[in-house]
Target: DNA helicase IV
Amino acid sequence: MSQEPGPADDRDPQDVDDTTHAVPEPDPANTPEQEIAIEQGFVDRVYDRVDVLRGEAEGNRDSGYAHLAATVPGAQYERDVFVYRAARRIADLDSQHEGLVFGRLDFDNGSVRHVGRLGVRDDVYRTLLVDWRAPAAAPFYRATAVDRQEVARRRVIRSFDRSVEEISDDLLNEDAAERLPVIGDGALMAALGRKRTGRMRDIVATIQAEQDAAIRAPGRGATIITGGPGTGKTVVALHRAAYLLYQDRSRYEAAGILVVGPSAVFMKYIGRVLPSLGEETAALFSLGELYAGVEATRQDRPEVAAVKGGTIMLPILRRLVRQTPPSAPAELRIVYRGDVFKLDTAELGAVRARVFEKEPRPNLAKTEAGRALLIALWRKIKPVVPEAEPAKFSRDVGSRGEFLTFLDHWWPDLDPAEVLGWGGDERRLGSAAEGHLKRHMVESVAASLQESDFSIPDVALLDELRILLGVKPQSRGRDRIRTWDGIQEVSTTQDRYYDRPERQARDAFYEDYAHVIVDEAQDLSPMQWRMLGRRGRAAGWTVVGDEAQSSWPRPRESADARRSAVPRGRVHEFHLTKNYRNSKEVFEYAAAWAKPRLRDIDLPEAVRETEVPVREKKVDADALLPELAGAVAEALEAVEGTVGIIAPYSRHGELAGLVHDDRVTLVGPLESKGLEWDAVIAVDLEAVAEAHGPGVAYVVLTRATQRLTRIDPA
Model:
């Protein structure tokens, strides 16, 4: 059982030079149907080979299971590695089955290279298909008419199941037109015009050169990706995760890649991109899910969120954890040698203060608290009982049941959620916030903390309290990222690939990621940056955002927090300049609205036109609902895909009845970040700008791919 679980196909095509192969001679007179038939023949050949590989992998897996009775540790380990590799191979072949072959490169010298979702070799180890992440595939994304990289023609192949449905060519060398047929009008425009489905798709077949450069940036240090709306920042970041896993799987799969987005709606939207690329191991969390056991979706009012997210909360939280728990007893009574000795409320308060001078984390200070109580009692007892001995006194009183019971109630183990809940008491919060918050803000924050569920900004506060209270982080230390070889606990891999993904999910407190990807980074508060910083102390970082779309009111404070969170090292910066989402009509309208309201705005170039102008309507209050209903019906008739209604949160109750079709979604302005619909109806835009700032209103105006309707109350 010592052989590898499969032929040499597991090696990457980047390791050798045989990345081109023989295909039928091109004929410039071929029709599209004839060219599709040629590509279908090659696609059939690849799938036939994949079927063979899958059968071999299943046989290897079954062979490994036949050795379940192995008792020698070395044999058990070898068996587990064998099963692990076979299971992983099967999972790779299954997850990337759809659209396996999507690209072809014809070179000046007549050679041909096909590009796909994974590398495949034939039975004599010649490359059939190059993995899109391999260096050999880079010309498919980077070759241009100016820098052709010896590419004469680039072809995108679109398939459904195993059938080639469409091909589209870009001719990069005009001199090759005499020998190469050119089919279609360009793959990118065709992809951009397709309907939206409510889930983000991968763009592996249409990655553009500037996007490819960002995807392939080194994993160490910090990669900063900026660009205006629609430039593909999010999908580039996700493809980057797949690329890093391909480049150094032992490091990034063992220690993990964390992908963080702004909301649960957003994470659902992007959730299938990485699995469609064959990667299931990255951990995806929204900002409301980065505290274990909490899934926050509630948005605070902007002024409350600005307080909760600011560093002003740090001294407030430190004071809060030092407060006496609400259920703590107010007096300690001890009988010693016939006399009653007491510590009253003021004296207990002084003892508590002395404990915090030695250990500021209450959950780690219980022993110190018991010692301090005994010292305070001894100082009362010694004058009355001069013959008492301190050591004997400590052993006697410190071991009594009533003393230990008092200590447990007076100094209990504290949970972050419990302590944050204390802030719902205006008196307690006011005491902790004295000198930091005005009275009306104390009232507003306390009212938010009285809610039955946590808000998204609360999650960062809970995580800060976790550290302040002394909950030890679950970390394996910095060196483990560098020393893991990816084989540990391989006997669990079968579970990881064939059971629910939750089986492999890391706890939200995990703090040893090898790489952290942060999307919509311009919106993160300082407290959220602190929370993320704990999870990537030794990580590489990819930070994605556009300052013009920010909802955070104090960008300098957030920038300082980001610099503290992201470890210092080499910085790789990439700027995306093309808007692939919005039609020119939609984006020019959004840009005209935003220019006078936002400074230093980055305006990418929209690459397509629809000849559908933006529609604006002002209606009386009693006509708003009928007008919106008509706009929704009109949008559903006009587009094949999805329709989004983006409205202020205060209007969601009255607008909920408009969502009567599964193609229609109603969201708030903050949840719309990163999402897109074929048609968007923006409701009461000025109210959005007033509540959340012009950056968020700009976001609302740039979510539509085809049609934008704006309806405002008169």
In short: Confidence is low (pLDDT under 50) at residues 1-16, 472-504. Residues 32-65 form the longest helix (34 residues).
